[in-house]
Amino acid sequence: MKISCKETLFTYNVYHTVKAFFPEAEIEQRVDTGQEPLVKLDLDGGSCFCISPADVRECAGTVEFVDARGDLRPGGTAGMRELGDTRGDLRPGGIARKEEAVCKKEAMQAQKREVTRLVYRFLSQTTGKELAWGVLTGVRPTKLATQLVVREGSEERAVDVLRQDYAVAPSKARLAVEIAGREKALLAPLDVRHGFSLYVGIPFCPSICSYCSFGSSPLDLWKGQVDAYLDVLCKELSVVAAQMRGQRLNTVYVGGGTPTTLEPGQLERLLRQVDESFSFHMGAGGLLEYTVEAGRPDSITREKLEVLRSHPVSRISINPQTMQQKTLDLVGRRHTVQDVRDGFHMARKQGFDNINMDLIVGLPGERIEDVRDTLRQVEELGPDSLTVHSLAIKRAARMGQDGRVPDAGLQDEIEAMVEAGAVSASRMGLLPYYLYRQKDIAGNFENVGYAKVDKAGIYNILIMEEVQTIVACGAGSISKRIYPDGNIRRCENVKNVSQYMERIDEMIGRKRELFRE
User: Fold this and answer.
1) pLDDT tens, position by position, 131-150
2) CATH of domain 189-513
């Protein structure tokens, strides 16, 4: 299949819309500024479709400005008079230019949305299929839902817009709006302007799953250098803590990789560094959540759980991904189904009352009966929250390098798997509280987190909705500074563990620049 676009503006949405309808197709894409059509599609079998400039309706009237937090500013672009530049300065003569830039950007986005709608409509008619999320290609549909509720004045009207303007299926539109409302309530206690969250990355795993693209390293290769890694990580934490003094720490998330690959003494050292570097107390006005991923059951021991309990860790994850042993063996997870049960019961005995479990639907070889059996076993354990992921195969993952993609012929079955996850969560008394999507996701569906009323993962919402500054330490971590006007600046630590350790002063310098007054 071939895609030719007049401007790069259209390439991302058009490519991913075509890919959603034809996930197994080889797609050739190019930009030709000299062509007449805005977009030209040549499908296998000789079918051709073109979009001319005349096909795209003009953007008329005042374009309303919606900032990145989903707040609709009164007066549309007039609200820009309050914003100034990203540092908050109101520069003489700069306001008009900024208003003009915003109007131009919004007009371009409107044109892009219309082109995407036309491509979607053609492909839907050609294939006889509809996509669950319609023309939406982004990873954060709940952010759009939040914006629409503000703009339209009601959840019902926001659902209607998602259905009519974005071709989102009714059930998904209602889900997005429901979660957007729940997220707003859960984030209400946060100090968005003066608070921040902390991410600490441990980039080691017992083994690398074939679907994983996170860039984690197998522990066997780094066994002798973990202490050296902790040396530089603790240095980074200490410097960052001093810079953030005076700001309120709302959530801590220790992830990876698998933090519980650390030995008990190493884990104690890391958590003690966090406790001593950052001044916080649990509860109202202080730390709302402290999560440590114990995701791989084969990394959990009683001694490590005791270390976690000796610190203010309030939430852990024990992630089976599936309770089918044949699949665990196939994807390279070197643990058994019984390890999952043993680790979960061990954590309960240690007093952990907020345990999350992650599952993936669409794993190779699994059918709906396998997923239902997995859910039955998870229900017997009774986690406090459950995240149901649809498999997404990235190029960086071993599956992606092998050329594997989710089976397009199983879309109806994957839809049934996703629905089975929702029904199972409901039986356990878990409500949907956050949602995100990924490129190349199985069946073009979504990932949903479900939780008991008081057990939702606050950090999960923050990382998706981008409403609070996140300071991230460790190899491959990404810090985000959220400005009052909704602008976002990022700085990344290098992914390579050796490079991170060698260039730690450079990584620290990047953060000093990002978070300076």
Assistant:
1) 999 999 889 999 999 999 99
2) 3.80.30.20
